[in-house]
Amino acid sequence: MFHSIDTVGDRWTALLVGALFLGLSRYDDISNVLGIATNILADRLRLLLSAGVIEQRLYSEHPPRHEYHLTSKGLDLFPFMLALHDWGSRWMPPAEGAIVQLRHQACRAPLRSRPLCGSCGEIIDVHDVLVHPQTPTRAKRRRTSRA
Amino acid sequence: MFHSIDTVGDRWTALLVGALFLGLSRYDDISNVLGIATNILADRLRLLLSAGVIEQRLYSEHPPRHEYHLTSKGLDLFPFMLALHDWGSRWMPPAEGAIVQLRHQACRAPLRSRPLCGSCGEIIDVHDVLVHPQTPTRAKRRRTSRA
């Protein structure tokens, strides 16, 4: 979990990933909407590119300009981002909470992030959890790549 | 979301909340298990106390010693913590991933964090999401308390 939180836990990184989920993809649009300093934005884009969470796509050749899109690894952060959004909606004062609601397209009801059993599908309460030691697949493996 | 991520998004804060979910509650135990510097641990405990995510309980009077426990607001971070854990298990190399597996006590299968519709209960894909502007309940309300 150390490295998961390093990749996505920083304030600006999480907001940047949130902006990409909402459909922003161009540097100037992201910068304007988030009000993020350009050096911080450039740094977080580099971090997410090197972690394989986003990828660049060329949309202009002269001058060269890139859009940023979530990869499969990035799109798989949806439950994490929704859980944060969901918790903020419940516990933060309105002015500090989310500026959008995320709803189910089919029935328009707000989404919730829920822990489920991967086998029986039951919704899990924190008291139903069994903590099981992870069997290391390679003991003392050193870090090689963040991607 | 700004303030949600400020409360729980920092690396050490998320690890500290994770340790409390795993049942640690005493300063020395948390410090030993996480290998966290005492000034950082004291700072993050203060942050979480002031945000109402944890509470203190006296367990020794001479000298006065406190345990730290998650409040309802803190326990409600379970979907967020599980989503982070879940994502790390899938995308991080084994040595950087989780050291424990979280399983369903009843059937022993690993847990997953899933976005659900709050009304029909359907599991939601990122493409099924409707982004709806949040109606502000109090325009330009100023920050008063983080709790």
Describe the structure in brief:
The structure is a homodimer of 147-residue chains. By secondary structure, chain A is of the alpha+beta class.
Entry keywords:
homodimer, 147 residues, alpha+beta, Arc Repressor Mutant, subunit A, two-stranded antiparallel sheet, 6 helices, 5 strands, globular, disordered C terminus
Please give a structural write-up:
Two copies of one chain form a homodimer. With about 150 residues, chain A is α+β, with helices and mostly antiparallel strands. Chain A has a domain at about 1-75 and about 115-130: Orthogonal Bundle (Arc Repressor Mutant, subunit A), CATH 1.10.10. Helices cover about 40% and strands about 20% of the residues of chain A. Chain A contains six helices and five strands; from the N terminus they run ααααββααβββ. The first copy, chain A, has helices at about 1-10, 10-20, 25-35, 40-50, 70-75, 80-90; strands at about 55-60, 65-70, 100-105, 110-115, 130-135. A two-stranded antiparallel sheet of chain A has the order 1-2. In chain A, a hairpin with a 4-residue loop joins β1 and β2. The longest helix of chain A has 14 residues, at about 80-90. The interface between A and B is large, with 81 and 81 residues. β4 (about 110-115) of chain A pairs antiparallel with β4 of chain B.
